Amino acid sequence: MLFYSTNLQSPSLSFAQALLMGQAPDRGLYMPANIPVLSPEEIAGFSTMAYHQIACTVMGRFLQDELPEGVLADLTKDAYDFDVPLEHVTERQYVMRLDQGPTASFKDFAARMMGRLMNFYLQQENRKLLILTATSGDTGSAIAHAFLGLDRIQVVVLFPKDEVTNRQRKQMTTLGKNIRVLALDGKFDDCQALVKQAFADPDLSQLQLSSANSINIGRLIPQMVYYFYAYSRLAAQGEKIVFSVPSGNFGDMMGGMLAMKMGLPVEKFVIAVNGNDEFPAFLKTGRYEKIDPSKNCLSSAMNVGHPSNLARLVALYGGQMDEKGGIHEACDIKLMQQEMWSTSISDTKTQQTMTEAWKSYRLLLEPHGAVGWAGLQEFQKQHSRSGQLSVSLETAHPAKFPEEIERQLGFDPELPESLKGLGEKPEMFEMLETAYPAFKAFLLRTY
Ligand SMILES: *Cc1c(COP(=O)(O)O)cnc(C)c1O
After folding, report:
1. Span from the CA of 395 to the centroid of ligand 1 (angstroms)
2. CATH level 2 (architecture), domain 83-106+219-409
């Protein structure tokens, strides 16, 4: 199977090549040239399979021809050794908690698989890599944990110093070993811009740079799996399902879209965003205007004014968008409107939703999950769909946002095992000026 660049100016690559490359040389994102389709019988068969087996089957369709027999089965079994709770809320509505991994964020699903796959291919090719990753909080810690101690990979994490919680920061800065962390006085978009610039800089080519952001196809493919999993546990055969996805850079949502294109019976994807509402506006009009600078909202991991995976979504619907958001070929916006619905949830609404969900259902949500849940409620109200099977994604553990839970609900959520003991560990990170020359100098000096 080949992967092409959304900017159409770089050659297509195998999965392993695209995985190790990260972003394409033309600054586009890799997309599968064709999407394999699973039969209804295969999808029905998932109901008796464990999560890691579903993962092996779904991902295998994209990469099996590049892995020796049995390797993918071993890697998925090793990566997915935690629960994926589906919490019943009311009628046919559920919340899928993607927060039981080692950093209590849904990003563990992709990061753990990606680390294992990269390590496998690097060993085969006897190569090393330097991973650069910008984070708005959860990516950095998920990547750092998933890559910690891998001998062929060094990791640099950049984060906006005022936009992550103490706990999120400590999850990255207390690791050491092959993980280095840089704090910037700026926004997530600034961090991401520095990383992108480094990839395009020929002076750094000897460093073997790669990316673990959601721009890497290796992040996307594992994120298809939990949609199949939820469906396998909840749906009658052939029944259609609604997913609500709290979204920022749109990697999570793109995993869902690919799952649907593989044959998963989805009625609608609800794309719930915070005050950064460039996507709902685009879906309505087909005209795209990014939000620059992005707005600071409570659901800080979704403070994205220009979702990098939007180029992939546009490609999936037959259009072409460059990395800056310029549209060179219009996509099939009508079809997109049939398959997706999107809304922007304000901070006030997010807070109300946290309170109401707790009061009405004892449903504990942190701000990102609350955006997803609020989006689902709005969708159902507007479409009179309350009896429809629907699943809203909770993307982080509520204990990662204790300040907001305390403010809205009046108690401190209990820490999962994975987050205990962070307070005592020493932190290591450097402050860095938010300018490309400073970042470049750091890289050249350190590696
Ligand atoms: C990263 C993140 C998101 C957004 O996911 P995207 O794939 O960037 O859309 C949502 N919630 C949490 C908690 C996150 O960490």
Report:
1. 7
2. 3-Layer(aba) Sandwich (3.40)
